[in-house]
Write a structure and sequence with these properties.
Length: 373
């Protein structure tokens, strides 16, 4: 089997990685979680009506622990969102709106990716990757401008992720990090040469150097494929997630006749031979997949791995499935410092994504440490 990790990659001079910036882990303190209010009805054909109310439940669960920054595509959408949130008794005092045109609402993939530099000179910045709607859809130009708009209006430092003069295309759902220098991703998403190609001509080594330069991740763990029904062609956040510096949860499908079984077993084998940034082995916790969900004959990408780790809760998609309780219980044993909250996602997954796809964390600004005398 192809190795899942290689020797540590050194970031190039002049890049954020070389300057000590790193993509923090999701469980580290947030200043806020970002959402983009839904408005593209065709993303949820025939079932758009309940979607804003699912967003309201997400906001209700997030607000006790952090601010919620909502990107609204227009002043009218802002007013509509505020009406829904008030009706659902969300704490609107913790909500800040950011009016900015968008094509869709998948904030994980088009929203700002924040890096932090820890230590005596703590700092935060946005790294802007290219976004092309998963190399599949044509309407993405508004979404692609969101990180720059956020940086400009909030006064955040920003750098464009480029390699050899080209903007690097990368979605937030294609990666997961432990905040210590390791990143998880899949070959299906980032290395396929024919289907939904983000960066034509890029090799495995190219992407590993991108991760070192622009995420501060010196160790890359390559999984194989994503799950059935995922129109992103292999996002890792439906498959495997870091829940601690050395621990991952991996989706498991026990039915050998299911389309996901072989791919997820291969990913397990890869993880068992993988090494982290300091050469450590991973602790692997396997969580079940829900029973297959379909809509008009189409397999939907339902997965408990698409959870969002917030300051005061871990939000987990649920699917009216007998395995919901098992998944929530297993994650509850892993996250003992905050409650695990189920969010009904049967309607939400019709849009081919759930909670992690919709959210994007803004890490808290690291406190500057005093220099010793």
């Amino acid at each position: 089997m192809r190795s899942t990790a290689r020797a540590a990659t050194t970031p190039r001079p002049g890049t954020p990685g070389a300057g000590g910036f790193v993509h923090p882990a999701e469980w580290e303190p947030h200043a806020a979680t970002w959402l983009a209010w839904p408005h593209k009805r065709s993303d949820w054909p025939g079932k758009f009506a309940p979607i804003p109310w699912v967003y309201a439940e997400i906001v209700r669960a997030l607000a006790p622990g952090e601010k919620v920054r909502i990107i609204a595509p227009s002043p009218r959408a802002r007013a509509e969102a505020l009406h829904v949130l008030r009706a659902a008794h969300a704490d609107c005092r913790r909500v800040e709106f950011f009016v900015c045109p968008t094509d869709r609402g998948w904030c994980r993939d088009m929203g700002p990716i924040f890096l932090v530099r820890r230590g005596p000179t703590g700092a935060r910045m946005i790294v802007r990757f290219g976004f092309n709607a998963w190399a599949k859809y044509r309407d993405f130009k508004k979404d692609a401008e969101v990180p720059a708009a956020v940086a400009a209006r909030r006064g955040e430092a920003m750098a464009d992720a480029v390699r050899d003069g080209r903007r690097v295309v990368l979605e937030g759902g294609a990666i997961d990090v432990n905040g210590r220098g390791s990143v998880l991703t899949t070959e299906e998403c980032l290395l396929h040469r024919r289907v939904q190609v983000r960066n034509p001509g890029y090799t495995r080594r190219d992407m590993e150097e991108v991760f070192a330069d622009w995420l501060g991740a010196r160790s890359t763990i390559w999984l194989g494929r994503g799950i059935a029904g995922d129109d992103t062609h292999g996002h890792v956040d439906d498959v495997c997630r870091f829940v601690g510096p050395r621990t991952v949860v991996l989706a498991e499908e026990k039915n050998p006749r299911d389309r996901n079984h072989r791919a997820l077993e291969e990913n397990r084998e890869r993880l068992e031979s993988a090494r982290l940034e300091r050469g450590q082995r991973l602790e692997i916790v396997r969580i079940p997949m829900p029973s297959p969900l379909y809509f008009e004959g189409q397999r939907l990408p339902a997965s408990y791995a698409n959870f969002h780790i917030a300051n005061a809760a871990v939000l987990v998609p649920t699917f009216n499935d007998v395995r919901d309780r098992t998944a929530l219980g297993m994650l509850g044993e892993l996250f003992t410092d905050r409650p695990v909250v189920g969010i009904h996602a049967v309607d939400l997954v019709l849009g081919l994504g759930t909670l992690h796809c919709l959210t994007h964390e803004e890490p808290a600004l690291p406190p500057a440490r005093r220099q010793p005398r």
